[in-house]
Design goal:
two-stranded antiparallel sheet, 2 helices, 25% helix, 71 residues, 2 strands, alpha+beta
């Protein structure tokens, strides 16, 4: 999974409660999470141990995009 923080419409506002910041620190322009790690991130998110991905892009303006098993 490639997360492009540069395209996030809520960058700065939602970063402090985003999985990218929690796991990797302040976001770089682009973050890549290996496919085999996506499941682990989903389990941690679904169990409430880490916040979800708060990425909102121009083509996804309806709300926050959550990554997890229940998404």
């Amino acid at each position: 999974m490639i997360i492009d923080c540069g395209t996030c419409q809520v960058a700065g506002l939602a970063c402090s409660d985003c999985v990218v910041t929690v796991l990797l620190g302040p976001p770089a322009a682009t973050v890549q999470i290996a496919d085999d790690h996506q499941l682990a991130v989903g389990v941690l998110t679904d169990s409430g141990l880490i916040p979800p991905l708060r990425l909102v892009t121009a083509d996804n303006q309806l709300g926050v995009r959550y990554v997890g098993l229940g998404a």
